[in-house]
Specification:
Strand content: 25-35%
Largest sheet: 7 strands, antiparallel
Mean pLDDT: 93
Distance between the termini: 38 Å
Shape: elongated
Structural class: alpha+beta
Bound molecules: guanosine-5'-diphosphate, manganese (II) ion
Oligomer: single chain
Length: 385
């Protein structure tokens, strides 16, 4: 779950990372009020779930409350194109903060490195708006530290990565506590990305977070009821929203048209690959989970079919502890009251698959013996007309 900069900065502050003074505002009057209270030059930043806001024109400086209000009027309600998110996003809120006097812009982030199977701390002295170009053109300017989960992030490890990044030696002492607090915040909030870019070194030598980008692992949200308020419904896909309300593991895929339902995340992903290989384009990821009772089947199908792009659905069920006949009963029961206008192919394998197939003969569902055959069948049928 992505959260906004102003929310991420609240988290950073709780963990001891210095952040500029500021407040979020949702109308021009509030923008003026915050600017007036701060009583100095302010930076005004559109709160959308994308980086690259500076380049998109969503970050502005105002010298006083009047200018701030004018910028508020201009930016609020405006839709801009954000290259990083590759989409148009509407600005509903602005973060109004005291502007900081930037001497240097540092990039720091903690995220997961799947290949190393470690969290990684990334530091570059070439922070700011062009970090992607640095990564591309001057990869040596980006230092990485793979974090041992048992050791965490001790001072010497921080010193090493700062040294590798050719960090100004005079500033190392001040920066170590910031790195440690960032890592503590990353772990403590179950984040998958905690990024500060720029971490600003001010003209008077202070270290302060100029920006923050945060992604929280949705699978850990159950233990963070305090993050419920961070959910920005206006930025969530409506079908995903409904699926999550129903407790269904569903991810909508832009541009796809073959609905996918399976039991087990790995099986669902493999099914998506097979559909792709057969020339189709998966419309979603949906893991129906174990058991696949009638209610879950009906609910899942309803979700998948509520995507108007879906031209066909592929059910891929592997019976292990889940028995094929149980699933078949679930499907029969669950599809009984649905008005289904697209072909549905089902592949049922494993425990009691034969019994399940026998039961499905009474339905319009089209059986397939293997996952590959099922993928080919649904692609053929869905794109037939
Ligand atoms: P992003 O483009 O979405 O990453 O948004 P940032 O919050 O990082 O802002 C983009 C750029 O605006 C930064 O890299 C800075 O150069 C500049 N900027 C942001 N805040 C301030 C500030 O308080 N003072 C000054 N002078 N520049 C700022
Ligand atoms: Mn930034």
């Amino acid at each position: 779950m992505k959260i906004h900069e102003y929310q991420a900065k609240q988290l950073l502050k709780q963990y001891g990372v210095p952040v500029p003074q500021g407040q979020v505002a949702s109308n021009p009057d509030e923008v003026r009020e915050v600017a007036k209270t701060l009583g100095k030059r302010v930076v005004i930043k559109g709160q959308v779930h994308s980086g690259g806001r500076g380049k998109a024109g969503a970050v502005k400086i105002a010298n006083d409350a009047n200018e701030a209000e004018a910028i508020g009027k201009d930016l609020l309600g405006k839709t801009l194109f954000f290259a990083q998110a590759n989409s148009d996003l509407k600005i509903n809120r602005l973060l109004v903060e005291e502007a900081v006097d930037i001497d240097k812009e540092i990039y720091v982030a903690v995220t997961q490195d799947r290949v190393r199977q470690r969290d990684v701390l990334i530091v570059s002295t070439q922070g700011g708006m062009d970090i992607e170009e640095v990564a591309h053109n001057n990869p040596a300017d980006i230092a990485r530290l793979y974090i041992d989960p048992l050791l965490g992030l001790p001072d010497y490890a921080c010193r090493q990565v700062l040294f590798d990044a050719k960090f100004d030696k005079a500033l190392i002492g001040k920066t170590i506590p910031v790195l440690k607090a960032l890592y503590a915040a990353y772990v403590g909030t179950d984040a998958t990305l905690a990024e500060i870019n720029p971490l600003v070194i001010t003209k008077d030598g202070a270290v302060i977070a100029g920006d923050a980008k945060w992604d929280i692992d949705e699978n850990a949200l159950f233990r963070h009821p305090e993050f419920t308020v961070f959910k920005d419904e206006s930025e969530t896909d409506p079908i995903e929203k409904e699926a999550h309300r129903r407790g269904i593991q569903y991810v909508r895929l832009e541009g796809g048209d073959i609905g996918i339902i399976g039991n087990g995340a790995g099986l669902v992903m493999t099914t998506m690959d097979e559909v792709k290989r057969a020339g189709g384009s998966p419309a979603d990821f949906l893991d129906i989970g174990g058991g696949a009772k009638a209610e879950a089947v009906a609910s899942s199908l309803e979700i998948v079919l509520s995507d108007p792009n879906v031209k066909g659905v592929l059910f891929n069920i592997f019976g292990g502890i889940t028995r094929g006949d149980e699933v078949a009963k679930g499907i029969i029961e669950g599809t009984k009251n649905l008005d289904i206008k697209v072909p549905i192919v089902i592949r049922l394998a494993g425990t009691r698959a034969a019994e399940g197939a026998e039961l499905l003969k009474t339905t319009n569902l089209i059986p397939a013996d293997t996952m590959q055959a099922a993928a080919e069948k649904i692609v053929e049928l869905a794109y037939a007309k």
